[in-house]
C-alpha cells in the first residue's frame, strides 16, 4: 500500500464509492469493497502499531518551499522530534512535506499517510514511513488513533476538514486530553473571531468550546503545550492507541 511516484488516477476509489452511480450489480461488488476497506484498516494498524508517541501535522499542500509557512512546518517537525514525538502528515507536498522534512532531518520518524487523489501522486520524499490509502475515512482514523495531538498550519479546505473533525471528536468526548494547536495567529484570527462572534453569539457553541483550540506563533510554546497534555494524558491512564 506504500506508493511513491505512482500515476495519477482519473477517478478515485472514494469517488466511485460515494457517487453511487452503479448498476444493480452493486450487491455483488460492495462485499468486496468492504473487504478492501477492512484490508486498509489492517494495513494501517499493522504499520503504525509500534510508532510510539506522535503528533499529526496539517497544512496546505500548495505551500511552496521558501514560503514562511513551509519553513515553519520544517521547524515544527524538527521540534516535535526533539521532544520525543514522531511526526505524521498526509504525505503530500507543501506544509506536509515541510513537516516531514524537518522531522527526517532531525533524525526522527516521519510518517506520510497518503491518499489516492486525482491531483496528487505518491508521497513526498521526506516520509520515511509511508502508507497510501484509498479511503479518506480510513486514513482519518489513523491521524487520530496514532497521534496525541494536532498541530495545524495555515491551509485550505482539507486542513479545515481535519481541524473541525478533531474538534468535533473532542467536543463529543470521543477523544480526550488531545491538544489542537493552531500555528499562526494572524492567519487563524479571523476564523476564531467568526466562531466567537457568530456561532457563539448565536448559542451554537458552548462557552468552553473555543478553549479546546490554542493559537501561537511560537513553536517552542506549541511543543510545551503538547508535552503538558501528554503528561496529563498518561497520568489519567489513556494512551493514543487505546
TrEMBL record:
Family: Belongs to the LOG family.
Any GO MF annotation of the entry: cytokinin riboside 5'-monophosphate phosphoribohydrolase activity
Organism: Ornithinimicrobium cerasi
Superkingdom classification of source: Bacteria
Gene3D superfamilies registered for this protein in UniProt: 3.40.50.450
Enzyme Commission designation: 3.2.2.n1
Key word Repeat present: no
Protein name, per record: Cytokinin riboside 5'-monophosphate phosphoribohydrolase
Protein's UniProt keywords contain NAD: no
Keywords attached to this entry: Cytokinin biosynthesis, Hydrolase
Annotated catalysed reactions: N(6)-(dimethylallyl)adenosine 5'-phosphate + H2O = N(6)-dimethylallyladenine + D-ribose 5-phosphate; 9-ribosyl-trans-zeatin 5'-phosphate + H2O = trans-zeatin + D-ribose 5-phosphate
Region Disordered, annotated ranges: 1-22
InterPro entries with a match to the protein in the record: LOG, LOG_fam, LOG_family_nucleotidases
GO cellular component, one term: cytosol
GO biological process, any: cytokinin biosynthetic process
Matching PANTHER family: CYTOKININ RIBOSIDE 5'-MONOPHOSPHATE PHOSPHORIBOHYDROLASE
Leading EC class: hydrolase
